[in-house]
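Ticket #4471: complex job returned nothing on first submit. Input attached below:
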Amino acid sequence: MKREAPIGVAYLVRNAQWRVTTFSLLGITLLMAVIGFYALREYESRSMELAARSLAFAGEPALRFNDKVAMRELIDQVVGPAQIAEIAVFDREGTEWLRYEGPSHGVIDSTARRLERLLINVPATAPMGDGQVTLGRVSLRSDGRTLMRYMIWTGVALLLSITLTAIAVFVYSRRVASSLARPINALASLTRQVRKSRSFEHRAEPSTVLEIDGLADDFNSLLGEMHHQQTLIEAHHDNLRRANESLKRASLHDPLTGLPNRGYLGQHLSEVIACARTQAFQVGLIFIDMDRFKEINDRHGHAAGDALLVELSERLRSSIRDSDFVARFGGDEFVIVISPQGDSLAIERLTERIRVSLDRPVRLPEGHELSVSITMGTAIFPHHADTVAGLIRAADHAMYRAKAMGRGSVVTFTPDVDKLSPDPISPNGGLS
Amino acid sequence: MLADLLIGIVQYTRWPGGASSVQVCVDDRDAPTALAVERRLAEGASTSRRDFTLASRKLNSDSAQGLLDCQVVYFEDARANPRPALLIALANLPILTIGHGEDFCSYGGLFCLTSAPTGWRIQANLDAIARSGLRVNPQLLRLTQRDGVTR
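Support reply: We reran it on our side without changes. The output follows.
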């Protein structure tokens, strides 16, 4: 469907007023013109009749004595002021005795005469005689100048009043239109402003036009509601964001020690390896297993085990560099990712630091002091494995090898280590 | 034509006392005029209810004696024979005198007829008309006063 171009309020108002006023003006003028025309026609006929009578009276002897010269002289006297265009005198037998036609100057006169012929079809006639016997009759026609003048003036008056009306309509409609359009435009610009800046504090001005005032009120209450809604949404959004953050944190961290969990480790390690692949640096991995954790748990209780894990994770965290990463892999197992300089030297230094940090015994909640011993297996990307799972597996294997060699030792992955134990990780799943 | 003129002038004239019949006296040697007037009257040329009668008189005397019962006296031969003595005798009497030639009015006639290319023209002696006591329709007098002719 084709949409029509919208029309301004000013145009609507002007159009409506213009139509009404023009219609009524035309109606009134037409009525007045018709009435005036009939009155004028009556007047014109009467005055012509009177002229005919006086001409008949004065011209009777001329007709009686057949004196056409005298009649012409008489006619010349009468014709000027009476505005007569045409005179015909008929004798007793009805044949035309004398005819006079006034001179016609130019288009205006001939137009006026044609108009007169059109409007007054019968010429004014008067009998000539002494009252008993008729000698003849005289008939005459007006030159129509009065009629035409009337018509011209009527036209001019109509034109003038239409012009005045047009001016009045223009001025008035502009005033009305501005009192309508201004508040509407203000509302529209307010709407744009609210939309653009999302600030719902602005309010629409009250208007003198009832409907627009109502609209402004409704608009204001709508703005108020939207403002309220907006604050609610913002609060809700904040809550959601916070919940989301804590949820994310919970999903990536171990609740007991606060260290990244196994999932986070996988994520971090794959990012680091992808980075190491493109930038060609080495990534070191240390797999740590606490020695005799099950025994400690059985002897001192789970609370002591937990405290031990927390203390261990704290010491591990303080031993690593800022760029390194430590995660609780599960149970009493921890993994440290060393990047970007994860070469054997860096691994050696770190294992040494960890060993030193564990020299100090751990104090349990109930007062016992325990010395902690761990076994570590290490592997390096890309020398020992070039995938996430492969690297972890390699370090894990190295750790088992170290356990076999004796608790508290450190073993770096070697290919023959691989044959020692088949695959301890895959049953646990998770890493790929 | 001449008869019409005569009848017309009579139509516009009123005699003192409101005479209801008009006697038109014609020279007894002027039979053609009498005949013409008679015929026009018979044809209905008169537009008045007044009775017209025609009488033939001898107009060669200088006395008005034989003409006192006439309301109109028509002088057919006034141009050749103006008869000023008779006209003076008829002055001050309510008798309408009509003759030919401007001289007729100069000698005291009331209306004088002159021939013009368009037909007859009528001239009037206003003084004589005033003295005669006749009332002549001003429109007729107006008709006689053209071209500044006053007598």
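DSSP finds six helices and eight strands in chain B. Closing as resolved unless it happens again.
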